[in-house]
Amino acid sequence: MTLLHTVLLAIIQGLTEFLPVSSSAHLVLTSSLYKIISGQEFLQAGEEEIFTDIILHLGTLLAVVFFFRKDIMKIIKAFINACKTKDFSSLESKMPLYMVIGTFFTVIIAFPLHEYFENMVSAPEIVGICLIITGFILFLSEHLSKKTQNDAECNKITLKQSILIGIAQGIAACPGISRSGMTICAGLMTGLNRVAAARYSFLLSILIILGASVFYPVLKLDSSEIAVINWTSIIVGFFTAFVVGYLCVKFFMAFLSRFSMKCFAYYCWIVGLCAIIFFGFISK
Distances in Å between the alpha carbon of 108 and those of 113, 152, 163, 170, 216? Predict the structure, then answer.
């Protein structure tokens, strides 16, 4: 992949990873448009393209870790202290367990379907349909959870909630189904307010993105494929995704404390419909 292509995807990844609009959908649509404009063959994504996607997700993961660094340190200290005192009554001391359990249920849902989801990279019109579904989920969750959206007391997650949010994250492995959207909506629907749901959503993403970043290169790439990867593009893309992602998560957390996610539902409907029309009919 060229440097321009990778940087373009990195900017899109950074802008859309934390907004409930599906970064995977935007990566698929942007890459598909780039191929059409540059005259490349419109085929299933190669190993390098999928690997680049994972590295860009790793860049936005670093943005999450950096933004929530104080929360993460507080959770680690609380967990270590709880292990010493055998007292796991505080929410912070339970969070690592909740995150592991949530990630476990994510893997149960996502792993059996991962090859099917990877093949959807070459079907942007189907991704458009999934974006429209994401829009409906965002819209409905705002209506069905009005009592908790601005309730400052609805900020403590439970084991049941962590499992349901983990399942939602597994479903969101499908390109076009927003990971942050699904997990935040699951949090809202189970009684969390927006800020608490978003905070847990972003913290939960840490383990699954780390796992994917290790799993895919080790099990899917061989030495010959690694040798031909454009590492300059990969490195530049990684840091671009980090910077853009950090600015985006900072904006989104402030946005959620004051406004609803309905505007993102409208956005998903518009982009999804445009993707269906363009890739399903015009570009054929």
Answer: 10, 32, 11, 7, 17
